[in-house]
Design goal:
The structure is a homodimer. With about 775 residues, chain A is an alpha+beta fold. The first copy, chain A, is built from 19 helices and 28 strands. The longest helix of chain A is centred in the C-terminal third of the chain and has 25 residues, at about 525-550. The first copy, chain A, is globular and about 90 Å long. Chains A, B: This is 4-hydroxybenzoyl-CoA reductase subunit alpha.
């Protein structure tokens, strides 16, 4: 770490660590309000069916039931988190589109009564043919999920940069591979929960959210309220990973139930309902064609993808875009073609999950490149080095990359993993694989089109200077943004972390910020916080200049001590100066704001620009395969990350570990499985098999620091980036170990066993 | 109301009205934290005793007990709310000084266990002679409450302005009367309660407080913590009336119990413990001598008072000062002498109670003046008119009075009460009486000596301008300061009250304010809020000037609409401009601060200056006496108040009603009664007889508006002022009705009956 910083670059303890480990942290589901009712949503048992009638009369008669609502009681305005693709209703009006679609809701005095009442609602359905496969769904004559979208095409992207056909013609070797991803779910440990209190024409919602702002915006829009009349308060959040970015039926139905009953209404999804609500990873069908020269230099790439979007858009427009847009970040090539169809099916809607659209395409690309390398007889690591993106370059799809230490990441990964000693030299059944990745540091455009700045911050210093409070709309969902933003505030102010306080993620008491998604907060919220801190420091130094009778340019402040730069022994406590400021001028306040630079680019069918900065990573894993059973034993993983300047190493490595954990689960075990009626067969943590701590390999997380000019103190993203290379890196290691490549995720023991069996049969060994 | 204002001057609903009436408001005692312990304090059963030994071993053994502490476990630093008169310890070290003095404390898992454990603590006492009467306590040889204060003199004031002796020599009539006040207690409906959480070297206290700032300051001082490491959060407060201004044993012992156990500790006083903690009204012995000329013009006054302070200082230094200082406000005379002895006794400590020191002296003075008037044959109302203070005058003790409509108040009271038709003309047993009063609008100096500004405020506007949040340290204890400060913020910003939000009285999230005492917030906190609002408006108008292409001087903003002053049809919504400001410049924030003007004066033994402004009031009451029983039936009360500009008439009249209620209780019924061992005989709401709604007479509350130049929009105080004249006005009415004057408070039925009996005996009628 750079010793020129006194607060950032250090693993200070988390702001909320103590209250969390002592059980004092209150999550939305822990909150109690007098007279609070419990609400639940009645969902559809059919994947596709016309609603013929809904009879709520028996439910209404049940003692303890305070309200029963259907589509007739709520606004019919369609909503959604993708701009201009609003396709969801609070309750289904004409038909249901997946098992779990929202039909009605009940508020009652306790959970028992609510569940009884749900059973008393009589819904008459006419079951319709359903479609569960996106390839089938695109065919003529397939069941239509939404009448407005022929052939179930929710989104279509066709981008063409350079001349891919010409590149392929000129290539020494052109190869096409096909891969299929898996439908996975974030499964945060804290279920969705919302408490709505609608009174006096104003609505307060306590909820488990990644973005109080988007919740406020979309809830206000749905009910025709002014934003100022909707207050959204994030309590503690037990993980989001993309699934808590958009308001759910809990907030919409809860608001109406509260308005009707005049009482607070608590709503929640149980674990099975969480799976049905979903908004997890899209399953993608991926065909990748690459042309290379004799040395393995990539000349052109064509990515042709289909995404199973499920029944609604959710964040899928961005998912579809990111799937192709981020493929170009890691390697330097000129010609790129991207085709994408995001398709409606009668399954739960997919959305953003850590890495948002990018991990599966990256898995496909990295496996595909290992085949290319093998064909050319080039070491896969070497192939990546030959193509690795360099700093200050522009991608074929016109993303400006500033800092980029991908080459150094690959080299360091090679060194610490012992790649040279292992590749091709490991005993039978063991293998090593590499993959790289890159991710955005925030989105250049927010989710709904707006000219608003993306982040802002206010800092208020206590009247005697012994504490300072940061007000930020940035959203700590466990990743530690409260902590690093306080570190940044203290660094910018010349203050101490220990004396920072924070108020965050409450639309009423904190200034605007778009929240936690797209790995945006360290750079974007951090920029606003830095500016606010600097404004405080400027005022402190000006006051100190008067008090110390020194030129303001000769003064600086560090760790709450103002000092003369020319004679550092002349000092004055920050607190004394802050106090004098308060006495002379009133509250010592700093303000900051951040809007991303307008990013260039001439896209077809895509937003202009995408992010101010990109992280890079190389991952190497070593695996052992049990050839009898197909069991995959990951021995060790080496992750080397370029995420710019590091604010808190311990939190950073925590993010890498978490991302790897998630990527590993999706690589080997996780998959949401449906029966032939579209019903989830494993909507629980026993049968949806996430890795446990015991499943985790040894992880070596290392850094190649860089300085990202677009970020405060040179920071960029880490929270999602480490998820990106994992699937490809595992798949390549398995290929190296067993000589078989499974082209569908997850790379389950069974699939590996079957592939090994097939290989042996081919080789005549069985 | 003045139509030039759109938000102030209107009876908008209270900010917190809805949550209070629906039971959603959480008071400190309603809060629950995981693992929270219950703590209680063991108090002394003796009024005066030496502590020989304390044995906590049995209590410690009781299962469920987590900590038992005595003076050995806590800092021995003395504390107190009067500067430089710190005389109280967390726990008594050498001896106890009143029944209820703090000896030890226990924290345990539940209330049952705590109470059992308290009984298991063995304290060996050597009982000492005690003194309960302040006159006795001043005598040589009386028991000494504190060794450091010979003759138990806690405070002595001797002031001499002009030449009183000469005035008396020149007077046509000089008269002396003696009165004795009563010891009363505020008895707020919400008991004191505090939850302390000490972890990681920092302390958070949720508590029922009138001033988070003083709590923070004195708690930090006691434990040697930085203020920034102590967070004090006011929750909802169910009344204070002066008794919740200083931290109690609950906060001090609770903090230590939490530090030792590592768990949150909830402490509370039950109703009897509240009475024992007290800090209510001082009982005063009052001798007043006045010299007048033939026309009743007052030439000089000598006030010679003794206060029973109880065992500790509490706020008593200010009480002693106010008792004399405020006597000069209502009448214009030149020569004034004030002698005060505040005396320690072995009774619970007295402090500030609504009207702080002034009501009893005012009662004495107003009764005394009726005797003077009777002697001179002048109508008592006429006597007051002849002497009434005029605006822009200076009192003999050098208080500068700006606005003063006392004459108009008296005239209006005369008119609406029908004084002229009633005085001397009512049937036997009925009578009418008048008294006047005046009160400070905030103290020129805070309670501890400091150069800090007295109030500050921050306003943040929502990014789309549909809401604004006011951050203020001002403390709403039920009186409605949150409401009127939001009205003031909206008025200053040109915004709407309905869209104001507030964060108040939390030392971490709000800027500094001294809190709710001395009727200071409307003027002082209001000044800071007005300035913050004006800073917002200025920025809005500057931005509007650019957007509307109009000169900024031609623009104004009202009710969230910016308009051209020269052509009011040209308008633009506040929200649009606020949003543009956010886009262009970041968070729209206004800051304000208030420090009172340095007030002049050459006092002996008193602080310099006292308040920036003074309210005035005249009260007339009509009573009926049952001569057989002494029962006093108050038929109607007319209060006419000069409190400057009125921000919220409904809250204002609520304050008048509440103050009258309190004054009435103290006049006729309320008295804390002790046995001969210093034990309170009536520490409960059944036997400490406060008036109920059914006891209340018809109240006519009227205003004479004035414009106070020291206050924002011309405001001044009302919260305490209406308490001041009540006792005198009732006493005078009783005198008028029955021809007897009871010279000791309360003016109980029994005393009236005895006085009537004595009178009849004298007249030979019995």
């Amino acid at each position: 770490m750079d010793e020129k910083y006194s607060v950032i670059g250090k693993s200070v303890p988390k702001m909320d660590g103590r209250v969390k480990v002592t059980g004092q942290a209150k999550y939305t589901g822990d909150l109690k309000f007098p007279n609070m009712l419990v609400g639940k949503i009645l969902t559809s048992p059919h994947a596709h069916a016309r609603i013929l009638s809904i009879d709520t009369s028996e439910a209404e008669k049940l003692p303890g039931v305070k309200a029963v609502i259907t589509h007739e009681d709520v606004p019919s305005l369609k909503y959604g988190i993708s701009p201009a693709r609003w396709d969801e209703n609070i309750f289904c009006i004409d038909k249901v589109r997946y098992v779990g679609d929202k039909v009605a809701a009940v508020a009652a005095i306790d959970e028992d009564t609510v569940y009884k009442a749900l059973k008393l609602i009589k819904v008459e359905y006419e079951v319709l043919p359903a479609v569960f496969d996106p390839i089938e769904a695109m065919k003529e004559g397939a069941p239509q999920v939404h009448d407005e979208y022929p052939r179930n095409l929710n989104a279509e992207i066709h981008q063409n940069f350079g001349d891919v056909e010409k590149a392929f013609e000129e290539a020494y070797y052109v190869r096409t591979d096909r891969f299929v991803g898996n439908r996975t779910y974030q499964a945060p440990i804290e279920p969705h929960s919302a408490i709505s209190i609608w009174e006096g024409g104003k609505l307060t919602v306590y909820t488990s959210t990644q973005s109080p702002h988007y919740f406020q915006y979309y809830i206000a829009r749905e009910f025709g309220l002014k934003m100022g009349d909707v207050r959204v308060i994030k309590t503690f959040v037990g993980g989001g990973f993309g699934g808590k970015l958009e308001p759910t039926g809990l907030e919409f139905a809860g608001a109406v139930l509260s308005r009707i009953t005049g009482r607070p209404v608590r709503m929640f999804y149980d674990r099975a309902e969480m799976f049905a609500h979903n908004r997890g990873r899209h399953r993608q069908f991926m065909e990748i064609t690459t042309g290379v020269d004799k040395d393995g230099k990539i000349l052109g790439v064509h990515a042709n993808f289909v995404q199973d979007g499920g029944a609604y858009t959710s964040l899928g427009i961005a998912t579809a875009y990111y799937a192709g847009a981020m493929l170009t970040l890691t390697y330097d090539f000129k010609n790129y073609k991207f085709d994408m169809h995001r398709v409606y099916t009668n399954l739960p809607a997919c959305g953003a999950q850590r890495g948002h659209g990018a991990p599966q395409p990256r898995y496909a690309f990295e496996c595909h490149l290992d085949h290319v390398a093998q064909h050319l007889g080039i070491d896969p690591l070497e192939l990546r080095l030959r193509n690795a993106r360099q700093p200050n370059t522009i991608t074929p799809n016109e993303f400006g990359v500033n800092s980029c230490e991908l080459t150094a990441c690959i080299e360091k990964a090679r060194e610490i993993s012992g790649w040279n000693e292992k590749k091709g030299k490991l005993p039978r059944g063991r293998g090593i694989g590499i993959a790289v990745g890159s991710f955005v540091t925030g989105a250049g455009y927010p989710i709904y089109r707006t000219d608003l700045p993306h982040a802002s911050a206010i800092i208020k210093v206590h009247e005697d200077g012994t504490a300072a409070t940061l007000y930020t709309g940035a959203t700590d969902i466990g990743q530690g943004s409260d902590t690093i933003l306080c570190q940044m505030a203290a660094e910018a102010m010349g203050f101490t972390y220990e004396n920072m306080k924070i108020v965050s993620a409450d639309t009423e008491t904190t200034p605007h910020d778009f929240g936690a998604y797209a790995s945006r907060q360290t750079l974007m919220s951090g920029s606003a916080v830095k500016q606010a801190g600097e404004e405080v420091k400027k005022q402190v130094l000006e006051m100190a200049s008067v008090m110390m009778e020194l030129d303001v340019d000769d003064l600086d402040c560090r760790e709450a001590v103002v000092f003369s730069k020319s004679n550092p022994e002349i000092t004055r406590p920050f607190g004394e100066i802050a106090r004098e400021f308060f006495v002379k001028k009133g509250p010592l306040v700093g303000r900051g704001v951040y809007a991303p630079p307008k990013l260039g680019g001439k896209f077809k069918g895509a937003p202009v620009g995408t992010s101010p900065a990109y992280s890079f990573a190389a991952q190497i894993s070593e695996v052992e395969i049990d050839e009898e059973t197909g069991e995959i034993n990951v021995k060790e993983v080496w992750d080397v990350h370029d995420c710019g300047m590091v604010i808190n190493p311990s939190l950073l490595h925590g993010q890498v570990h978490g991302a790897l954990f998630m990527g590993m689960g999706e690589s080997v075990w996780e998959e949401v499985v449906f029966n032939d009626k579209g019903k989830i067969l494993n909507p629980n943590l026993a049968e949806y098999r996430m890795p446990t701590a015991l499943d985790m390999p040894k992880i070596v997380s290392e850094l190649v620091e860089s300085f990202e000019p677009a970020g405060p103190w040179g920071v960029k993203e880490v929270g999602e980036g480490a998820t990106i290379p994992t699937m490809g890196c595992y798949s390549n290691a398995i290929y190296d170990a067993a000589g078989v490549q499974v082209n569908t995720l997850p790379l389950s023991y069974e699939k590996v066993w079957r592939a090994l069996k097939e290989k042996k049969e081919k080789e005549g060994k069985i």
